[in-house]
Amino acid sequence: MKKLRVLLVDDEIMIREGFKRLFDWDAHDCEVVGEAADGMEALAKIDSLQPDIAIMDINIPIMNGLKVIQMSRLKHPDTAFVIVSGYDDFSYCREALRLQITDYILKPVNYEEFGTCIDNLKIALFQRQASQQDLFQEERAIHGLTRYLQEHLAEEISLSVLAEQFHLSAQYISQLFKSEIGVNFLAYLTNIRMERAKKLLLTTSLPIAQVSEQSGYGDYRVFTKVFKKSEGITPSQYRRDFLEKE
Question: Is residue 69 part of a domain?
């Protein structure tokens, strides 16, 4: 598993050294990649290093830790922040909650408690990354499926055909159409077949039977029935109405 990158932000060098020497980062699959002693330096380091986690003191020079977090959120929404502070103040805690801070730990640091915090954070980050990866894979899958439908529209297409072609379950493909496109598979397929049919009717002089076949309907009668249900008129009438308007 890839180690999580950690930035330490505290104006006291002894505190930063304590974090580096007294906490076993390797045991928690983390590595310290940088340090900052004030708010402006922290902002710059977050920009350049793009850490997974920033351990942030509130009371730091130039710009306080809460302001650093607020500004960093705009450019680095995936960075997780853990506040380590000597202030047990409700107003700070409330602001930290508003900024969706992962945890708020008081100084002096209990490293066992801190380790639990890091482990919980590691699990949350892993789950978020897995969720983002799943979303990317779903988007890629639906793109491939819809492209395949357009390229093989004249052929017999069903969920089972797609399942075999893409090595996915028919149920998963069905769920993808509902979640990614918002309609079920059959409704989507019918819609793009009707769009193909209308284009052929208006831009070619093909007989209706051939329009039917190229739109994926081997049975002319079924095609006519589906077309009339979709458009309110027969394919012949649809073409005739268009020609009369020309």
Answer: yes
Taking alpha carbons only, the member of 32, 34, 38 closest to residue 57 is 38
**pLDDT at residue 128, as a whole number:** 84
pLDDT tens for each residue of 4-28: 999 999 999 999 999 999 999 999 9
Summarised one tens digit per residue, pLDDT across range 210-239 is 999 999 999 999 999 999 999 999 999 999
Q: What is the pTM of this model?
A: 0.69
Give the integer Cα–Cα distance in Å for 15 and 43.
Answer: 19
Which residue type, as a one-letter code, is found at position 234?
A: T
User: In what helix (H) or strand (E) does residue 181 lie, and over which residues does it extend?
Assistant: none
Q: How many CB atoms are located within 10 Å of the residue 217 CB? A: 20
Provide the 8-state DSSP code for 83.
E
Q: How many residues does the chain have?
A: 246
Q: Are 122 and 29 in contact (CB under 8 A)?
A: yes
Q: Determine the 3-state secondary structure of 88 from DSSP.
A: coil
14 in Cβ contact with 61 (< 8 Å): no
Is 143 a member of any domain? no
Number of helical H runs and strand E runs in the chain: 11, 5
Sheet holding 4-9, edge to edge: 30-36, 4-9, 53-56, 80-85, 103-106
CATH of the domain at 101: 3.40.50.2300
Residue that terminates a domain, selected from 109, 142, 158: 109
Nearest to 216 by CA among 149, 162, 160, 137: 149
Q: Which helix (H) or strand (E) holds 62?
A: none
20 inside domain: yes
Identify the domain containing residue 217 by its residue range.
187-245
